[in-house]
């Protein structure tokens, strides 16, 4: 299915495996790329030299294109960018920052730059900054989210109306049916996160994967908007946040409760009580842990079946 996304990344299918912190190491990225989609290493949870190790292992595990996702608010950003260039990575997804900061510098090194946004306003700013493509992510997504709480269903056509560069939809996508819906709305491709968390190759702790596949509708909630909005599974830590809100906390009170390394504790180490368990609303539709290759095959089969079903619609 050649289109603007497959041509931009030189991949077979217009699907991107999201670069999620504590979930997207070299095993997930290489398995994704080997399946014909774009695999991403999530640099947000990695020290610079750990990132270098993951890039090197990924290069040995696949001869297909892969990229690195870089949240620009993290420390050591200069070292991370230098390592990306030194290791010859040719695709970078940036988020959580001003795309003007790094886009020209990366493109001068012949690196394709994609920026993640949650609104039309920031999509236009990213296009103005010269990025090669945009990921527009609805607030159904797991992890850190936009403050406007715009859903994917409304965000994609609004962004499509305003930009000219390739558009990738994200947030609430775990099936081929959702992929087709997003492309009908104007997306050139999709980025999928939560479905790949529940994969055999994900670096997430097995206990966290089990919580994801057991999740039901309503088990996640967007919270901590005063700091950085994040969608979490409701657990003891989430309940502690809600109890604190009843006391009209200050930002400092929220920061003190959050502390450090909550995401690592939950998703990577498997502390299901005190950890931060980031996952999307679509987790209620994820019921099993599968190899990446099987997940991709299922997505494509569902996509083709959904296209056929469209012809049967009657009014």
Can you tell me about this structure?
- This protein is an alpha/beta fold.
- The chain has two domains: 4-204 and 283-310, Alpha-Beta Barrel (TIM Barrel); 216-282, no CATH class.
- The chain is built from 14 helices and eleven strands.
- The strands form two sheets. The chain has an eight-stranded parallel sheet.
- Helix 2 (26-34) packs parallel to helix 3, helix 3 (48-61) packs parallel to helix 4 and helix 8 crosses helix 14 (292-310).
- The protein is globular.
- It starts with a helix and ends in a 5-residue tail after the last helix.
- The model has no long low-confidence stretch (mean pLDDT 95).
Using brief descriptors, characterize the structure shown.
315 residues, alpha/beta, 2 domains, three-stranded antiparallel beta sheet
What is the topology?
Elements: H1 4-9, E1 15-17, H2 26-34, E2 39-42, H3 48-61, E3 66-71, H4 77-86, E4 91-95, H5 103-108, E5 112-117, H6 120-129, E6 133-137, E7 143-144, H7 152-162, E8 167-170, H8 176-184, E9 189-192, H9 194-197, H10 206-214, E10 220-223, E11 230-233, H11 236-245, H12 251-258, H13 262-268, H14 292-310
Parallel strand pairs: 1-9, 2-3, 3-4, 4-5, 5-6, 6-8, 8-9
Antiparallel strand pairs: 7-11, 10-11
Helix pairs in contact: 2-3, 3-4, 8-14
């Amino acid at each position: 299915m050649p289109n603007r996304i497959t041509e931009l990344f030189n991949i077979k299918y217009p699907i991107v495996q999201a670069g999620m912190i504590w979930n997207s190491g070299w095993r997930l990225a290489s398995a994704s790329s080997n399946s014909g989609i774009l695999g991403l290493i999530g640099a947000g949870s990695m020290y610079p030299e750990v990132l270098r190790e993951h890039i090197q292992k990924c290069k040995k595990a696949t001869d297909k294109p892969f990229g690195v996702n870089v949240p620009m608010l993290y420390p050591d950003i200069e070292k991370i960018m230098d390592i990306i260039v030194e290791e010859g990575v040719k695709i970078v997804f940036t988020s959580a920052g001003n795309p003007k900061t790094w886009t020209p510098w990366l493109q001068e090194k012949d690196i394709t730059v994609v920026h993640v946004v949650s609104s039309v306003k920031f999509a236009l700013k990213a296009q103005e900054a010269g990025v090669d493509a945009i990921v527009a992510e609805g607030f159904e997504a797991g992890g850190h989210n936009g403050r406007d709480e715009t859903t994917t269903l409304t965000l994609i056509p609004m962004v499509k109306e305003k930009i000219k560069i390739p558009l990738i939809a994200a947030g609430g996508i775990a099936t081929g049916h959702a992929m087709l819906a997003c492309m009908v709305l104007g997306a050139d491709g999709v980025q999928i996160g939560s479905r790949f968390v529940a994969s055999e190759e994900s670096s997430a702790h097995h206990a966290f994967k089990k919580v994801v596949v057991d999740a039901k509708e309503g088990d996640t909630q967007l919270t901590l908007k005063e700091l950085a909005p994040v969608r979490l599974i409701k657990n003891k830590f989430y309940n502690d946040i809600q109890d604190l809100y009843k006391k009209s906390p200050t930002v400092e009170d929220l920061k003190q409760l959050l502390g450090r390394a909550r995401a690592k504790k939950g998703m990577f180490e498997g502390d299901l009580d005190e950890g931060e368990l980031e996952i999307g609303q679509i987790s209620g539709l994820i019921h099993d842990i599968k190899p990446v290759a099987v997940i991709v095959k299922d997505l494509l089969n569902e996509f083709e079946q959904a296209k056929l079903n469209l012809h049967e619609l009657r009014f």
